[in-house]
Amino acid sequence: MTEERSSRILASRRPAGFVGREAALAELADKARGKGFGGTVLLHKPRSGATEMLQQFFDRQFFFAAGPAPVYFAFPRSGEPIDIARSFLSEFLIQTLAFTRRDAGIIALPPLASEISAIANAGDVAFFDASVRLLSAAPLDHERETFIRRCFSIPMAATAAGIASFVMIDNAENVSGDARYAGILRAFETLARGERFPFLFAARRRSGFAIADVPRELLPELGRVGLKELIATAAKSNGVSVGEAAADLLAIHTGGDLAAIHGIIDSAQRDRVSLEDFNGLGSAYVDSVFGGVVREIYSEMFERVFPVTVTEREAIRLLHDSVREATFIPLDVFRSRLGLTDDAAVAAAEILNTEETVRFTSGRLEAPAENKMFRDFLVSRYRLEGRGEPRALVYAETLAEFLSSAPMEMASEYRRSAAVDVRGLMAEFGGREVPAALFDYGRFKETYKGIPREELTELLREDQRVISLPKIVFSAQAEAFYKAIGTISESERAAVAVGFQAAERGSEPIAWIAAEIDSKLEAERAKAEFWCDRLEAAAINCGFERYRLWLIAPEGFDDEALAAMSERGCYSSSRQQAELLRSVIEGSGEEPDVLQADSYEIVIPIDEDSEIVAAHTLEDIARRHDIPPAHINQIKTALIEACINAAEHSLSPDRRIHQKFVVAPDRITITVSNRGLRLADRAVPAAEPANGRRGWGLKLIRVLMDEVRLEDVDDGTRLTMTKYFQPPEPSAAAA
Question: For residue 312, which of 4, 105, 370, 422 sits 20 to 30 Å off, Cα-Cα?
Fold first, then answer.
């Protein structure tokens, strides 16, 4: 056995060839070692490398870690529940036995059930004896669920016997949504409630798989950098040359499908094809569509979903037409065209949705055009089998289309990657107050353009004219709301966000409809009006009663465009303003992004003069951190006002005020929060006394502090205040 193979048991690829997942592997190691860790559900995109990652971790844990025994089990797509339970028990015993003996050969050549106890270490014999008896049991019909539960509970029995394990259950979506496997799901819940050992369930992200009280995490997709590293590594290990542009196109056209990427590179090696340019990549890719990995991926899926050949061909025809015409398929049409029962149609649609070849929502199916691999497969299969066209003709035209569209595909992707990500930006609005100049290009150009970035940030912080952004509850690409926008803009460059204005009473939502448009110079009036028309059409089509339009152009807008946008109530920003907005939002969180920050938290009762307790706490913190004396009284007064406001106007059910102090060398940030009435819930504005100890409330706080943000949270109000100061000079003792 080579040294390379000696460190591989389950993994299909060499450790050196597995790239881009070091952070995820490190997180798995932390979970395996974590005390009190119960478990998690790891959701992932199909063929994103989740299975290989778990198997790579298994091998690392087996050979190089002293922690719990790794156990990997993958659910089959079908089978009797009792057989699946027995298979899990068998795998658990074999893998834990191999780990305790540090003998990978036990996994490669599993012992018979009768041999397991004889191989076990002396201290583990009792556990393995009892487990083997369970493995060999033949339960009666009424005992089957108990047997299943006992099989899946074996990790807890092992823990009690002193054998720690980290159980990884893959393909968990295969037991989701099928009544036959309800007993297995109940056993999972028993497993989750144990919380005496770490475990993980991995499932497709659209499967809906969930276990009560078990947190769900999403495995991040490999980004552009990670995909290029993976392609370069795989190509090098296979002796295949690959050009940088071809690597970009391979990552883009496959949508990051790792099975397809590896399959195409493997076939290039086999056929001695160079991937240095688009021509070589095109030949390897089209080969994969007609008889390689791409055809295998989707053909296997169709054969599984539609076991009858006639039904499969009709499904391909139906989905092909949906992609070509950019239309959706109502579920009743899908059912009747394929001759399926209601239950069978729903089951088929759900599998296609889980595989992310269609979107199945609101009783309709849609094959997304952005899945280029699936589109190419559908077109080739339909032309070959549905219309009976010659294979050579279809192959040649498919290759020609790939090569002719490649430059446009790359250009489109480069534009998308350079986009502002307006959807993500709006999703982070969070009810914040931001400088109004960031949404008014005319004012920004007149006041701030040409000022260095560092100085500009400080000037914007001092700008007293602000806009209250809504608290966004949902955002999506604009074409998801209004399909016509998708015909004139890349999906990432137009978005709709729906939320609520925190400062307004009532609960009527507001929609922000935004688009990033192209213009080499300041955008002109005609272009601005064109886009205002399109965004207004989206608002009307969706029935939005309240909406705000927002356009972003790389270099802003000329004066005539600004006048037209002002008449339409449309905000205007340059790319620089959008980037500044992002930095303002990212920098306005509760805790400053400073490594040296210290934090303190206290809870005080709502009682007469209890704000004095908060003031004394602040004084102690200030002395500890040498906060300049000139700032202490200002901060203390602002804190007292905040506490009084929270006490008087919240109607807090628990009669408590929560306070957090975060101190960094250049600032102190104080958060005052309480349960009770939110701003939007108050029937009338709180009256502020004209004079006296309580001053002018929030107005006074804004004068005393540099940054103030008041926002509604789920069940109350949160006030965040920041005071900036120069770091104190080092003391003589410190020197």
Answer: 370
Q: Which of 586, 606, 627 is the last residue of a domain?
A: 586
Tokens of 320: 């092909």
Q: Check if the beta carbon of residue 42 is closer than 8 Å to that of residue 201.
A: yes
Q: Of 171, 200, 218, which marks where a domain is finished?
A: 218
Note whether residue 735 is domain-resident: no
286 with 448: CB under 8 angstroms? no
Identify the residue with better confidence: 518 or 647.
518
Is 460 within the bounds of a domain? Answer: yes
Domain identity same for 65 and 145? yes
> Does some domain include residue 148?
yes
How many whole angstroms separate alpha carbon 151 and alpha carbon 154? 5
Residue pair 534/524 in contact (Cβ under 8 Å)? The answer is no
* Same domain assignment for residues 605 and 582: no
What one-character DSSP code corresponds to residue 378?
Answer: H
| pLDDT single digits (tens) 163-197 | 989 999 999 999 887 788 888 888 777 777 765 67
Pair type for strands 494-500 and 359-361: unpaired
The amino acid occupying position 264 is I
Which spans in 500-552 are helix H? Answer: 525-542
Answer yes or no: are the C-beta atoms of 518 and 554 closer than 8 Å: yes
**Structural domain for 152, as ranges:** 3-218
The overall average pLDDT reported for the chain is 86
Residue whose C-alpha is closest to residue 512's, from 489, 530, 493, 535: 535
For residues 550, 553, 557 and 562, what is the CA-based torsion angle, rounded to 10 degrees? -10
Choose between 382 and 480: higher pLDDT: 382
Question: Token pair 């392609």 is at which residue?
Answer: 231
What's the CA gap between 153 and 149, in Å, rounded?
6
The CATH number of whichever domain residue 553 belongs to comes to: 3.40.1340
Element (H, E) at 180: none
Task: Quick: pLDDT tens for 365-382.
Answer: 988 878 999 999 999 999
Distances (CA, A) of 635 to 424, 657, 701: 34, 17, 9
How many domains does the chain fold into? 3
- C-alpha 333/C-alpha 347 separation (Å) is 15
Q: Measure the CA–CA gap between 608 and 606, rounded to whole angstroms.
A: 7
Examine the domain organization and report whether 612 and 493 are in the same domain. Answer: no
Residues facing 477 on adjacent strands: 495
In a domain, 322, yes or no: no
